[in-house]
Amino acid sequence: MTDIKKVVLAYSGGLDTSIILKWLQDKYQCEVVTFTADIGQGEELEPARNKAKAAGIKEIYIEDLREEFARDYVFPMFRANAIYEGEYLLGTSIARPLIAKYLIKIANKTGAEAISHGATGKGNDQVRFELGAYALKPDIKVIAPWREWDLNSRQKLLNYAEQHGIPIEMKRGKKSPYSMDANLLHISYEGDILEEPWNEPEADMWRWSVSPEAAPEQPTILELEFIQGDIVAIDGKTMTPAEILTYLNKVAGANGIGRLDLVENRYVGMKSRGCYETPGGTVMLKAHRAMESLTLDREVAHLKDELMPRYASLIYNGYWWSPEREMLQGMIDSSQVNVNGKVRLKLYKGNVIVTGRSSKNSLFDTSIATFEDDAGSYNQQDAEGFIKLNALRMRIAALKS
Question: Where are the alpha helices (DSSP H) in 85-182?
């Protein structure tokens, strides 16, 4: 790729991407454009701008993508009730297609021939970034330093930084030993003692939630309002998608909700142990399923549940921009037209408890479901023929055995 004159780098200003910036300049003798996304990671982004300027970068992009992330990625995913391998709420996975979109957008704007990222050759993120990039710009070139260089340890990276005069801010006090990724939906932890699946996570590792044991003795009551499958208000107050996630993270985390310790199957073939905090997402999933239980037709609800693992795998594996994900999204979104109403929840010591649901589109008919006199709304004698017809094949098989 000797013809590369300009590359857009997904840049955080941390150790890895600071070194990648210099490495790209030296290895490819090209101009580097930096792109830093604010997707709610809770970090000050101006230091990244200052570091890029100090490295001689002329084109620096810092984009506030919090609302777009929540509105166009997180909320559509939650309409599907997507969870990977029965537990993981896909907090890292769902952020990558948005970052890929902006890498390509900036490449088009600046005339860059290539993009670059700091994902390692062992993980899922390299796949997610690059599948997204190729889907949006088939002829884009991708530079993945971790697949090219020999700086495969933290000490080698630090030595490189010292050799080339790259300033690395070392955190004061106790440095986190974990590899962490944060956005509006979650924060993840990998590495250090977590690499042994038998080890219990350290109590002070968790950032967003208290332990269930330390949660308040009094529950928190929430009322969530839905329109077409999306939460639009909490306790009567209308909020934007990003505001909703931010608020639910705070209140759910304070009640010990959203912790997960998981061994997952990565797309590249290995098993990986990670810990996740997804307080707001845990509440959203519970509330959305409660709203659907009242408003979705039985077969539609069951079909959605059958499709969900495939949809979740597509997101986990990096296929957000694929035609099959877009097809599934269209089906899912069409199912949400009548998912309107309110859900009341009790948050208590790590638990999300549904205590009420109400909808103008409710399919719940008290006159039919009642244990009291149904006044002829349902003829119980009809059940006899229904049961016999459904038993027919099994009765025939039993008679023939």
Answer: 96-110, 125-136, 154-163
Of the candidates 364, 276, 327, 352, the one whose C-alpha atom is nearest the C-alpha of residue 80 is: 327
The string of pLDDT tens digits covering residues 176-206 is 678 889 999 999 999 899 999 999 999 999 9
- Contacts with 258 (C-beta within 8 Å, 6 or more apart), sequence order: 186, 208, 209, 249, 252, 276, 277, 278, 279, 280, 281, 282, 283
Domain of 342, in residue numbers: 179-296+338-358
Separation of alpha carbons 44 and 303, rounded Å: 43
Residues 346 and 215 grouped into a single domain: yes
Has residue 150 got a pLDDT over 80? yes
Q: Which residues are catalytic?
A: 16, 96, 125, 179
Could you tell me if 224 and 281 lie in one domain? yes
220-227/31-38 β-pairing: unpaired
> Cα separation of 353 and 222, whole Å?
10
pTM, 2 dp? 0.94
Please work out, in degrees rounded to the nearest 5, the angle formed at the alpha carbon of residue 283 by the alpha carbons of 277 and 289: 130
